[in-house]
Amino acid sequence: MSSRDIIIESLTVGPIQTNVYVVGCAETGEGVIVDAGGDPEGLLGLADEHDLKITKILQTHAHIDHVAAIPEIKEATGAPIYLHPDDMMLWQAAPQQGQMFGIPVEQLPSPDKELFDGQTIAIGKLSAEVIFLPGHSPGSVGFHIAEHSVILSGDVLFAGSMGRVDLPGSDRNQMRASLERISGLPDDTRVLSGHGPATSIGREKQLNPFLKQDW
């Protein structure tokens, strides 16, 4: 997806088919990586294709399939890593997570910046609002770029489904509240999630059983 102002590119990586993103400001050439879950060369290649300098590494959460490429991306770019503090236990346990899922990863470098609800993240002249959406993990967040009607939702909302709530640190009640919150965004908001195809808030309000009824 691209327009005069915004660049959004994605790759699907790893054994769990995780969507990872490069988001950039076309005017300033500043870019971010959202969820460095794998294929660091591919992510950096996407940035290079659009002449983007990666200035931030933004994490929707700290499950292994979203962080496995962090060491390489950090080393290559020197960009600060942003993570919600409630996911620090998962972050620190990345090597153990990797053993469980067959994704080898070394100990991750420490995050540089804390994310919090309502925070504004600058991507050149673009602005992404941090929306705290716990439930799939304790510190899950989404990045809402309202001007371009898009949210990077991590593993909270999927096309026709939602993120798992049977993992350590997951919470069904928090997920219900987070789904209610995200469903309050405008219907035309494009949802770019951590797994599966893109969708929209309006489509999910019509078709997604987890937004339509109690579960």
UniProtKB/TrEMBL annotation:
<keyword id="KW-0862">Zinc</keyword>
<protein>
    <submittedName>
        <fullName>MBL fold metallo-hydrolase</fullName>
    </submittedName>
</protein>
<dbReference type="GO" id="GO:0016787">
    <property type="term" value="F:hydrolase activity"/>
</dbReference>
<dbReference type="GO" id="GO:0046872">
    <property type="term" value="F:metal ion binding"/>
</dbReference>
<feature type="domain" description="Metallo-beta-lactamase">
    <location>
        <begin position="17"/>
        <end position="195"/>
    </location>
</feature>
<dbReference type="InterPro" id="IPR001279">
    <property type="entry name" value="Metallo-B-lactamas"/>
</dbReference>
<keyword id="KW-0479">Metal-binding</keyword>
<dbReference type="InterPro" id="IPR036866">
    <property type="entry name" value="RibonucZ/Hydroxyglut_hydro"/>
</dbReference>
<dbReference type="InterPro" id="IPR051453">
    <property type="entry name" value="MBL_Glyoxalase_II"/>
</dbReference>
<dbReference type="Pfam" id="PF00753">
    <property type="entry name" value="Lactamase_B"/>
</dbReference>
<keyword id="KW-0378">Hydrolase</keyword>
